[in-house]
Amino acid sequence: MRSRGFAFALTIALVSTALMARPTALVRPGITPVPCPQQEWQLGDPKFEALPGAKAFFGPYDGGIYRIEIPEKWNGEFVLHAHGFVSNAGANGSALRVGNAPIREHLIKDGFAWAASSYRCACSSTWTRCSRISRR
Predict the structure, then answer these.
(1) What is the pLDDT of residue 128?
(2) What is the maximum span of the chain, computed from C-alpha positions, in angstroms?
(3) DSSP-derived secondary structure letter, 94
(4) Of 43, 57, 86, 134, which sits most exposed with the smallest number of CB within 10 A?
(5) What's the pLDDT at 4?
(6) How far is Cα 134 from Cα 56, in angstroms, rounded to an integer?
(7) pLDDT, tens digit (0-9, with 9 covering 90-100), for 73-126
(8) Are the CB atoms for 116 and 56 separated by under 8 Å?
(9) Taking the domains of the chain in order of start, what are their residue ranges?
């Protein structure tokens, strides 16, 4: 019985230590993060019309704008549309923008909710502070 108690205490100690340990860097060895440019960001308009049989949610968050569309007959599944790289150069470079998922009609018809967001370079050069969606 003592050995079980000891094993349990040891397991709790190891799990607690693992959960409290924080990595010092989130990059792979040999990769040097590039600092973000000092840039003034402009929020685009996230408004959009929901497809028939769905509800649209949109707005700003700390760091960008978002769109979410949920069908009335939601199947409980969620798709995150990742649009990929958008340059911060040129005439629209400082405009944070978000678009609709290209397959949104299919997603809504089959009961899937989807979301998309803009994002900006918001991490420090040490990767310890990044912008995030906050719960409201």
Answers:
(1) 37
(2) 72
(3) T
(4) 134
(5) 63
(6) 19
(7) 999 999 988 776 666 777 777 788 888 888 999 999 999 999 998 876 654 433
(8) no
(9) 42-117
Stated length of the chain = 136
Burial class (CB in 10 A: 0-12, 13-18, 19+), 65: buried
Q: Which amino acid is at 45?
A: D
Cα 16 to chain center, whole Å?
A: 27
The rounded distance, in Å, linking the Cα atoms of 45 and 40 is 16
Residue 116 CA, chain-centre distance (Å), reads 9
Instruction: Please identify which residue in the block is written with the tokens 């010092």.
Output: 24
Tokens found for residue 61: 């968050």
With b meaning 16 or more CB within 10 Å and e meaning fewer, what string describes 25-59? eeeeeeeeeeeeeeeebebbebebebbeebeeebe
pTM: 0.61
Q: Which amino acid is at 39?
A: Q
Cα separations (Å) of 93 from 88, 90, 107? 4, 5, 30
Take residue 81 and report the two structure tokens written for it.
Answer: 């549309």
